[in-house]
């Protein structure tokens, strides 16, 4: 103990730090070391116990914020003794509410994201004209791996977008994957008026049935789980082909369920199969914008042809 007193006296004489300040510095250093060791230990425990990468990420983030919050509280007690805490926070909050309106809005939105979870890391969302996969969540912003923009069919652009959390309170957010993990995709196929459109429709229906996402039991269970959580109701979950007449031919639109991240790949597979199947048919052909002359007197139905003038 005598050596400690001498060390304290030496520091006071040459550094100007009183024994009380020296004690607070030692307590602060011990607190930071203990907090770091606790964080490392809990992270390792989480890595052993939690196999899901997404849950492990959220756990580390929550652990970081929780330990940081308690460290700040204890540091307050060490250096200020907790005196005037309520009055200080009252004055501070009034000033911060005006000066830091946007950061506080972002912080409130972070609490909303954490508790209500409109999205989590890994979800595909669209907000404020931007769309992408959520790759990070922080106190003041979240990050997206951008999709779309100049790249078609919801493919990744390679850019990372950082969006303030407060945007949740001002912009509409769309979640591609929460609850109902599938999206509807439509592929219009136009055939000529001379084609056997009924045969073409049967071919397209068979192709859509082979590529729909709800064939697996996993997909069916996801749909049932979404129906329990949200008021989601679809009259038909099986693929369907709709018929419409356009200027250049008969449009047959395939509508089917697909995984949001497989929209382009599934569309490619479907189109390749359509091209192969239609090539085998002599009475089905693709239509495209054309200009033609139609002589009703020669080509029209007998009941619609103009009558010859009476003698």
UniProtKB/TrEMBL annotation:
Protein name from the UniProt record = Small-conductance mechanosensitive channel
Q: Where in the cell is it found?
A: Cell membrane
Q: Which residues form the Mechanosensitive ion channel MscS domain?
A: 102-177
Organism classification, top ranks?
Bacteria, Pseudomonadati, Kiritimatiellota, Kiritimatiellia, Kiritimatiellales
Superkingdom of the organism of origin? Bacteria
Q: How does it sit in the membrane?
A: Multi-pass membrane protein
GO CC annotation, single: plasma membrane
Q: Which gene encodes it?
A: mscS
Keyword Hydrolase attributed: no
Q: Which GO terms describe its molecular function?
A: mechanosensitive monoatomic ion channel activity
Membrane-spanning ranges: 20-42, 62-79
Tell me which species this is from: Kiritimatiella glycovorans
UniProt KW keywords = Cell membrane, Membrane, Transmembrane, Transmembrane helix
- Keyword set includes Transmembrane: yes
Primary localization class, coarse: membrane
